[in-house]
Every structure is written in C-alpha cells, then in structure tokens.
UniProtKB/TrEMBL annotation:
Domain Flavodoxin-like: residue ranges: 247-387
Name of the featured protein: FprA family A-type flavoprotein
Organism for this UniProt entry: Jutongia hominis
Top-level lineage group: Bacteria
SUPFAM superfamilies found in the cross-reference section: Flavoproteins (SSF52218), Metallo-hydrolase/oxidoreductase (SSF56281)
Signal peptide as annotated in the record: none
Gene3D superfamilies in the cross-refs: 3.40.50.360, Ribonuclease Z/Hydroxyacylglutathione hydrolase-like (3.60.15.10)
Stated family: In the N-terminal section; belongs to the zinc metallo-hydrolase group 3 family.
Annotated TM spans: none
InterPro entries for the chain: Flavodoxin/NO_synth, Flavoprotein-like_sf, Metallo-B-lactamas, ODP_dom, RibonucZ/Hydroxyglut_hydro, Rubredoxin-O_OxRdtase
Length: 389
C-alpha cells in the first residue's frame, strides 16, 4: 500500500488478494487481484468504495491509518458488487455519522445486501451531475448504468482532475505484481464488461468532456500517464472492433486428431502471411484468455470434433461464452471432425447464427477421423478465403 501514491489529500487504502482461487467464481488470476479503495482528506473526508469481505481487516487498518484519528463523513458507493461493497455495513456501523452517497438505483438495491438502520436519513441518493463539496475537493457524479451493473456511477474530482472509474479501466493482477497492463486489462474487460459495449461507449463520451489527469479504478494500477492509450483501448474494445489483424485458432479435440488439424491450419495461415496467429486448446487452456483473444483478433478458426450429434462441449462452452459477451464483427472459419456423421459444423453454425455481423467462410472443412492430404488442400483453400478481405 505504501508505494501507491496519489496525492497528499487522496490516499490509497486498497488491498491485494494473492490467494483467491477464482475471481467471480470462474476466472483464474495467476497474479491475484487488487480491491482498490481510496480516501479523500479535506474539510470533509470521503471514502471511495470499500473492499471484498476477504480483506476487511486489512482494509479497516489502512482506512484508520489514513484517517489518522479523523472520522468518515461520506462513503461513496460506486456500485454494490460484493468485491467492493462488502464492507458498506461494517463502515456504516463503525462510523455512525457517515453518510452513504450512492446512485438512486444503488439506494434501491442496497437493502438486498444489507439491513442498514435509518437508511433514509443516512443515504444521499445522487443523480447525473450532482456534486458533493468536501472543501477544496469537489466530486461530480456521472451515472454509468450497465457498466456493468445497473446502479453503477463514477465520480470526477475536479480539483485534482481524478476520475474514480469504478470497474472501468480495471485489470486482474495484484498491485504487487509486475506485469503488463494491456493483457490482463483486456482479459478482465471482455470477460466481465464485454457484453456492455454500448453503455461503455456512452460513458466514454461523457468522460471525453472531462479534463482527466488520473484514473483511479477499483482493480489494478492507478493510471497517471499516457491516459489516451488506455482510453483508446477502451474505445476499441467497447466498439467491438478488432484490436489487431490476426487469427485465433481454437481447437476442441477428444483424441488429438482435430488438434493436429488445428495446428496444421495455424501453420498454413502463418505460411500464407497472416499478421499474427494465436492458438488455444479449449480443453486445457484458460477459457477467459481464449475469449480475450477471440475479441482481440479480426479472424477466428473453430476446429472441433463432433460429439453426440452436436459439437464437443469445450467448443460449445467457448461459443456460448462468446455469445454472452456479444461477439461480433469478425470473420469465422470452421474445421469439423467426425467418425460417422459429422455434426460439429452444423452445431457451431447454429450457435454463430445468433451473433451480429459475422462473416462465415464458405469453404469450411470436414475431416473424417484423421487429417489426409485432401484435407490439407481443403484447409489451404479455407485459409485463402479467411485471409482475403
Ligand atoms: C462421446 C463421443 C461422441 C461422439 N459423437 C460423434 C458424432 O455424433 N458424430 C460423429 O461423426 N462422430 C462422433 N464422435 C467421434 C469423434 O467426433 C471422432 O472420432 C473425431 O474424429 C474425434 O476427433 P479427435 O481425435 O480430435 O478427438 C464421437 C466421439 C465420442 C467420444
């Protein structure tokens, strides 16, 4: 915590969590995650969100140290997800004079999580553009519904030009981890916020009207420099445009023959000059990273075994996840494998049909059990079609 510095008046009081097995019950986090929280010390004090219940003790210690004997005047609640709001009641109880500042929707949702006495008197429900004076510092509230919960708001502090961006611009990885921002921010974005591109675009348009010098998200590092880079990434991601020209080859193989064909396809694509070819084994690799790469690149090759009159479940799972996250605007090729009545292509096509603006190749390939020379020739044709504009 000591190394995270924002300013004399704005203190970081968040915590790292380095031994959580799965974030949101499904995402591996090899380098942990941080639950960020901040306190603004002015004539009035404002705590900006709390943290996950796993780290309550450490967070309260950080809070007390930062307050240095002062009390909490306001707790600003950007949204109610438990990884940030778990300590709302604990703080409300520990500081009975603190007011809870939250969106109108958050106020309505709060009793689902906590029974807070005198909520009517304690809550300040804010709307778009409302402000809160703390002294020299002033918060302006900007509603961000469905980024990625309905009650979300972000806060802009105009004296120091800080955007408290809720889960926006967050990433996996504890603050103690020394790692690249983009990879883990992209994996976080597409798997957690991905479905809500349009609300993110709306928020970005509002943010464009603010003079922002620092972004304080609820996960990951505080962003102080080169903010255009991060905002530009969010613009690309939330508009569902490919970030990089390239192909993700995704393989779902039972006994290994489909995987061999997938690897051959990756080789062919490289030989034919694909800008970048990424590969994922959907039976073993991180599914969240596969989703991330599907959005990152402009093209996708689905290689799957037939299974019980449908498609091998790891591929079904992958496509289901892509559908959840509004996968769109990409070119897709398919290679299916089967031993008696191949059905993978039909099943995959059915799942792709519900997605917007996909261009599906015509020369998709069917392999019967083991890849033959004629299959390789067919894959060459498919690669040409996929790489053509
Ligand atoms: C449980 C199970 C169900 C299968 N269902 C089908 C099927 O419906 N149609 C078909 O043609 N092949 C089916 N197969 C066969 C595989 O799709 C086929 O052997 C394929 O070549 C396997 O490729 P792989 O070596 O990549 O696993 C099934 C195999 C298993 C194990």
């Amino acid at each position: 915590m000591d190394k995270v510095t924002i300013s004399d008046a704005v203190k970081y009081i968040g915590v790292d969590d380095t031994d959580l097995d799965l974030f949101e019950g499904q995402y591996i986090i090899p380098n942990g995650v941080s639950y960020n929280s901040y306190v603004i010390l002015d004539e009035k004090t404002a705590v900006m969100d709390t943290v996950d219940a796993r780290k309550s003790k450490e967070w309260f210690e950080n809070l007390k140290a930062a307050l240095d004997g002062r009390t909490v005047d306001y707790l600003v609640i950007s949204h109610l997800e438990p990884d940030h709001a778990s300590n709302v009641k604990a703080l409300a109880d520990a500081y009975p004079d603190a007011k809870l500042v939250l969106s109108v929707k958050a106020k309505a949702m709060l009793p689902q999580f906590f029974d807070i006495e005198n909520l009517e008197e304690r809550a300040i429900a804010v709307k778009e553009g409302d402000t809160l004076e703390l002294g020299a510092h002033k918060l302006t509230f900007v509603m961000a519904p469905m980024v990625h919960w309905p009650e979300v708001m972000v806060e802009y502090e105009s004296t120091e030009k800080i955007l408290f961006s809720a889960d926006g611009f967050g990433k996996f990885g504890a603050l103690s981890a020394d790692e690249d921002w983009t990879c883990e921010a992209r994996r976080y974005y597409f798997n957690i916020v991905g479905k809500y591109g349009a609300p993110v675009q709306t928020l970005l348009k509002k943010a464009a009207g603010l003079d922002i010098q620092t972004i304080c998200p609820l996960h990951g590092p505080i962003l102080k420099e080169n903010l255009e880079y991060y905002i530009d990434k969010y613009n690309t991601w939330s508009s569902y445009e490919p970030e990089d020209e390239g192909v993700l080859v995704a393989s779902a193989s039972i006994h290994g023959n489909t995987r061999k064909a997938a690897e051959k396809m990756a080789e062919i694509l490289k030989e034919k000059g694909a800008a970048k070819v990424a590969f994922t084994d959907l039976t073993r690799d991180d599914m969240a990273e596969a989703v991330e790469d599907a959005f990152r690149y402009s093209k996708l090759v689905l290689c799957a075994a037939s299974y019980d009159g449908g498609v091998f479940p790891p591929m079904e799972d992958f496509l289901n996840r892509l559908a959840h996250k509004s996968y769109q605007k990409r070119k897709v090729a398919m290679i299916e494998n089967g031993s008696w009545a191949p059905t993978a292509k039909r099943a995959m096509t059915g799942m792709l049909e519900g997605m917007k603006n996909l261009s599906i190749c015509e020369n998709n390939v069917t392999i019967m059990s083991v890849m033959k020379d004629k299959d390789i020739a067919a894959m060459e044709t498919l690669a040409d079609e996929l790489l053509s504009e």
